[in-house]
Amino acid sequence: MPLSSRTAKGAPIPQVLTIKSDEKITSIFAVDEFKDNEFIILLSQNGIVKKIPLNSLSKISARGLVVTRIGEDDCLRWARRCTEKDEIVIGTKNGFAGRFSTEEIPTRGRATRGSKCMSIRKGDTIAGCDVVNAVDVSSKY
């Protein structure tokens, strides 16, 4: 991403990234070092979660990388950076929530599909998720 001032208008995404017209940006985060103990958690609106090593994304070409496979009736909604010591909190549109360790999510290769993280009732979808540091959360309660 080119550096600009705080008041700049920005640059059109297609000039910076090669993305197809039907693709949407889910998350943006800066990576200054590809550490072995860090991962990216991907979560779809239908509750499919996938954990991939951050260092598997270190060699990206101008064409980009395929990092997951998504079903026809699903779409990738969240991407978060984490470690094995973190926890993920997931909430659904109809008010159900779950919290579990990122250690429970199997580490997968880039071209594979993820695992179901939560049984979602008919008509419900994932509304949000975030990664929390388990040490910070546990010490407050």
Short description:
The chain has 141 residues and is mainly β. Helix content is 7%, strand content 30%.
Query: CATH first level: which class?
Result: Mainly Beta
CATH topology: Neuraminidase
This entry's quaternary arrangement is single chain
Name the overall outline. Answer: globular
Structural class: mainly beta
Can you give the helix content as a percent range?
under 10%
Strand order of the largest sheet: 3-1-2-6
What's the number of helices?
2
Roughly how many Å apart are the termini?
Answer: 40 Å
Mean pLDDT: 85
Which H/E pattern describes the elements? Answer: HEEEEEEEH
Query: Could you name the ranges where pLDDT drops below 50 across 5 or more consecutive residues?
Result: none
The total tally of domains equals 1
Q: What does the main sheet amount to?
A: 4 strands, antiparallel
For the record, the CATH architecture stands as: 6 Propeller
Proportion of beta-strand residues: 25-35%
Radius of gyration over alpha carbons?
16 Å
Produce the secondary structure layout:
Layout (H helix, E strand, L loop, with lengths): L12 H4 L21 E7 L3 E6 L22 E8 L2 E7 L4 E5 L13 E2 L9 E8 H6 L2
Antiparallel strand pairs: 1-2, 1-3, 2-6, 4-5, 4-7
